[in-house]
Amino acid sequence: MATASGAFKSRANHRKQIELEEARKAGLAPAEVDEDGKEINPHIPQYMSSAPWYLNSKKPSLKHQRNWKNDLNSKSTCYDRGAKMFQAEKYRKKACQNCGAMSHDVKSCMYRPRKVGAKFTNMYIAPDEKVESLKLDYAAKRDRWNGYDTSDYHRVVERYEARENARKKYLKEQKIKKLEENDGDEDEDDDGLRVDEAKVDESKQMDFAKVEKRVRTSGGGSTGTVRNLRIREDTAKYLLNLDVNSAHYDPKTRSMREHPLPNTDPNEKFYLGDNHYRNSGQALEFKQMNIHSWEAFDKGQDTHMLAAPSQAELLYRNFKDAKAKLISQTKDSLMEKYGNASTEDDIPMEILLGQSERQVEYDRSGRIIKGQEVILPKSRYEEDVYANNHTSVWGSWWKDQQWGYKCCKQTIRNSYCTGSAGIDAAEASLDLMKANIVRTEVRPNKVEEKRMATWGTDIPGDLELNKDVLSNALKKEDELKREEKDERKRKYNVKYNNDVTVEEMEAYRIKRAHHEDPMKEFL
Asked: Where are the domains of the chain?
């Protein structure tokens, strides 16, 4: 699930990314590779694999999960196991009270506890061990062979050689003992000893894959034996081709999709990849059965491939039988209606061999000179079929990146042919459109600003407003607005006048609240 960046992705790309991640988890697609060429585990969650935005990582990587501040000393990656530093002759202050070494205290002393410690006896002082403080990485801390001296392996070799020599000596003594008892038959006894040794080895090899485990009880109970049925002589699929650029192998699912050795002899190929076995044999039949089960469930059948496999297989067999029966019935009905040419009488030899009384002349090279007309090859499509009164076919005319009819120069398919009159009308409309374009370009585009009058009509040129009267009308309009907001300020004696002056109408228009005005709340 490692991603290079958190850029926006479309729905289709997001779906493809999810499908690719599922395929990587299942082992059907190769794992993602970081900047150093190492594979990234597809099971790592996204919140761990995605790098922070401030790192500007353009490629997927897991470097942000490593400890950058830890400066490891590559020269000191191992310590000297069992190295001695100094051998003291008498006890020193702050040394181990048991052995007398300065490298540890009495609580962490690994020597045998003495009855009287070296602190009091001042004898047999143990040497000081070499203590190192190394900054090791994750793997070095858990390396069980860190500090191991390879020269110590000769002790293991000597121990095994001594055991082998003892075994040979024992066999030789048994052989001499049997020779002394029988005084002969040396060959038979030798063969008997070899057979016995072979029997012992065979008995040891019989249970190489036997695993015994106890069931249902912690201390005893019934015992079950599990045997590994895999033949150990078979070569593992990841060892067939050791090239790193060959077919990808997923160790988690143990799957290898492609053929590891595609260029080998077909007779020597015994493993062709998981995709080959997945799309052939019973695997393909199982896939078709599974698809049939899905479609049957969608159409209302109560079936499931995993819950009831026998029922699903029976339904699939019935479906195949019914399909084959339907195909045979359709074939029989067609033969009954149109007949079967294969069951009729034999074709006459004249027609079969192409014999006729027509005379044909050939030249020396085998070309026909006289007697046979040249037949133009025709396609399986209908030719020279004119629809909707056209005299030419569609595609016989080309103009302005469009196909059309040559007879009427129309670019709309299946349109009715208008002939030469349609051509003239099209040219006239084109000329008129060009003239209109030229006229609009030449005419000046001046928009006269019109002042709207207070009554909703055009303002006449001789209209004049009195500024003092207009200011009084505005004040009066404000007082009316305040009275509308607070009814307590409304007067009892209301004077109503039906005459409205031009200034009062202008004041009403100015104070009127416009719904489209963004500043109407501040009026």
From this structure: 9-63, 80-144, 235-277, 280-336, 385-439
